[in-house]
C-alpha cells in the first residue's frame, strides 16, 4: 500500500463526528418581570395600588397566543425557570472540542461516495497517532467492504482510551477500486490536542509511626466535575485510611449515604478539593518484607463525571515519601509506674525487638549520661548494666531497669543504651522521656 495519496480527485471522503454527551442549548435574552415596569419599590406601601396590581399584571403578562405574530410578550418572564435561558434543546458536538486525559475518545466516522459510480473492495483503516505510538482502531483488510454505491456511505464507530497528553492525530485511510477499475489510496488526518483535566498536588508528613498524605485536586476544565472516587491504593507494606470530617446524620441517612455515596463537586475553572489519607505499616510481616530505603507509598485512583455524565478516569504516578531506614533493633517503653517517689527505687519495663532475619545478641543495657552537660537526677539503682540473652530473628525480649530519682518535679530519663557484645556494636540511645517525681507523703 502506498503511503502517499493517489493523485487526482477521489470518489470517497471521510467525515468524522465526535460521539459524546450533548450539551444544553442556552439562550441568554434580556427578560424581565412586568412588575419591574409598572411599579416601583414602594408600590406595596399603598394598599389601594397593591390591591389593583395583580389584575394589571395578569392582563399585561397573559400567556402568549401562538397566533399572535407580534410576539409582544416574548421578553417577559412567564416562569422563574425562564431566567436560566434553557430552551429545552440539546446540541450535538460541532467539533472535537476539548478532549482530556482519562476520557474515552469515541468517534462516529462515515466514508461517503460522492461520485456517480460505485466503488469496490474498500479497505478501511483508522488509527490514533501520538508522539510515542500508533494505535490501530479499525482494519478491514481481512474483510474489505465489497461495494459502496454512488451517493452511499459506510459508517463505523471507533473508541480509544486517552492515556497521553499533547497532540493526537486520527488517521483514516481507504484503499479502493474506483469506477474505472483504478486502485486509489485516500488518507485523511484529523488533529486534536489532549489536555490535563486535573492538577494533583500531594504533601507527605510523618508523625511518629503514622504517615499522612494530603492530596489537593484542582479542576482545570471548563465544566464542573463530580468526583465519584478518589481512593489511595497503598503499596504492599502499607494500609490506608481516608480521613473525613465527621458529619452527624440519622441512622437511616447514614445507611443511605453509605450505599449511595453522593459525588463531590469540584467547580470549573480552578475549583479545589483536598483529601487526607492516613498510612500505617499493615502488619509485622509486611514490615519485615519492607526493603531498607524504600519510599514508595502508593498511588491515587480518580474517577469522575461531567455535568451530563461523561466519565473519566486517572491514575497518578507512585507517590513517594521519605526513605525509611529499617533499624536492626528497636527498644520501646512498655510500662512506667504511675507514682514515682523521690529517692525510692522504681522499675521501668521495656521491650527489645530484633527486626532482622538473623539471631542477634547477647546484649548489655545501661544508663549512659553521654556528653550532656546538664545534671541528671535519675540514675541506676544497683547494677550499672543489665545482661540480655540472644534474641531470635524477628523475636523480642522484655526486661526491667531499676532506677532512682533524686529530685522532685518533672525529670528526664536519658541515655538508655544497648550494646551488642558479639558484634561489638553500640546502638543509638532511646530518646529521652519525662517522668514526674513526687515527695514522700509519709515524710511530708
Structure commentary:
The protein is mainly β and 444 residues long. Helices cover 7% and strands 47% of the residues. The protein is built from 4 helices and 31 strands. The protein has helices at residues 35-38, 47-60, 251-259, 284-289, and strands at 12-18, 23-26, 86-91, 99-100, 104-113, 119-129, 134-139, 145-148, 153-161, 166-177, 183-195, 198-207, 210-219, 225-234, 238-243, 264-266, 272-281, 296-305, 311-315, 319-320, 329-335, 340-341, 346-354, 363-367, 378-380, 385-388, 396-405, 409-413, 416-420, 425-426, 433-438. Strands 4, 6, 7, 8, 10 and 11 form a 6-stranded mixed beta sheet that branches. Strands 14, 16, 18, 19 and 20 form a 5-stranded antiparallel beta sheet that branches. It has a 4-stranded antiparallel beta sheet with strand order 12-13-17-15. The longest helix has 14 residues, at 47-60. The radius of gyration is 38 Å and the shape is elongated. The chain starts with 11 loop residues before the first strand and ends in a 6-residue tail after the last strand. Mean pLDDT is 80; it is low at 284-293.
Globally, the shape reads elongated
- The count of strands amounts to 31
* DSSP helix fraction: under 10%
The poorly predicted ranges are 284-293
* Category by helix and strand content: mainly beta
Mind describing the biggest β-sheet? Answer: 6 strands, mixed
β-strand amount = over 45%
The helix count comes to 4
Task: Give the secondary structure arrangement, pairings included.
Layout: E1 12-18, E2 23-26, H1 35-38, H2 47-60, E3 86-91, E4 99-100, E5 104-113, E6 119-129, E7 134-139, E8 145-148, E9 153-161, E10 166-177, E11 183-195, E12 198-207, E13 210-219, E14 225-234, E15 238-243, H3 251-259, E16 264-266, E17 272-281, H4 284-289, E18 296-305, E19 311-315, E20 319-320, E21 329-335, E22 340-341, E23 346-354, E24 363-367, E25 378-380, E26 385-388, E27 396-405, E28 409-413, E29 416-420, E30 425-426, E31 433-438
Parallel strand pairs: 4-11, 22-31
Antiparallel strand pairs: 1-5, 2-3, 5-9, 6-7, 6-8, 6-10, 10-11, 12-13, 13-17, 14-16, 14-18, 15-17, 18-19, 18-20, 21-23, 23-27, 24-26, 24-29, 25-27, 28-31, 29-30
